[in-house]
Amino acid sequence: MSSKVIESIAYSYIGRFIEPYLAEFDGLKLTLRKAGVDKSVRMYLSVRIFWAIILSIVSLVVLIAVKIVVAELSVILVIVLPILVLISMFVFTWVYPSYLVGDRKRKLEAALPTTAGYMTAMASAGVTPDRIFLSLTKEKIGEAIVKDARKISRDIQVFGYDIVHALGEASLRSPSAKYSSFLEGIVGTFTSGGELQRYLEVSSETLMNDKVQSEKNFIDTLGIMAELFMVMGVVAPIFFIVILAMMSMLGGSAGNANLLMAVMVYIIIPVSELVIIVLIDAQQPEM
Asked: Average pLDDT, stretch 219-240?
């Protein structure tokens, strides 16, 4: 079954229940726009809810089949796990757009210094702003920048917007304050009759210096994260495992010690290291 068919089914049958409540999701609508998701709120929620229901039903069927084969399997697990799957999908539905916003912001800001330099060269040759953005759509400067340049060119060529309106719309849908400021600067320079080439030269130099500084800051942060990883991922687990082993040897409850050790090894250590990886990835500047 193709994604288009699934979207059509979800939109038709689930979307009708969402429609009366769309006004409550204005925040999600803005987030989807900044994330670059070209879907309506109704479509997005319908598809996500559709998959949440399907995955919950599949997990329930699988667990019932396992229960038939393995009678010792807890009935509570059979009931609770599908509910957890459903809740996890709803949490993912709400959190995923925010992740995309952050990812798009990083990609825009990473490609911005190179883009400003490219636009400076084009402006020095006397190319108009609308033609500069059209030219950007054919380059491989950065995926996020190129996609946004395509939308700007579409707004101008298809929807008949002037460059000021098109850049204003791009600024509103941008998740990056730095990129929005850059576009607004182009609009201000263009409308005031200023020298676009000079503005782009100054912006290019400033953005490049900011990128170098952000990479230096990330290196400093990486050192702190390395120390945190040593404490949470190596030293603390070894310490607690030794303590638990000693407690068991000195007459403590072996069952409790083994349970705590299993929780430490299979849950606490992997989760703590995953948190550190996510924190590093969130702060790492795009190259």
From this structure: 81
Model pLDDT for residues 200-227, shown as the tens digit of each residue:
999 999 988 888 888 788 788 888 888 8
CB 35 within 8 A of CB 104: yes
Whether 43 shows a pLDDT value over 80: the answer reads: yes
- Residue 45: count other Cβ atoms within 10 Å of its Cβ: 24
Cut 0.85: pTM above it: no
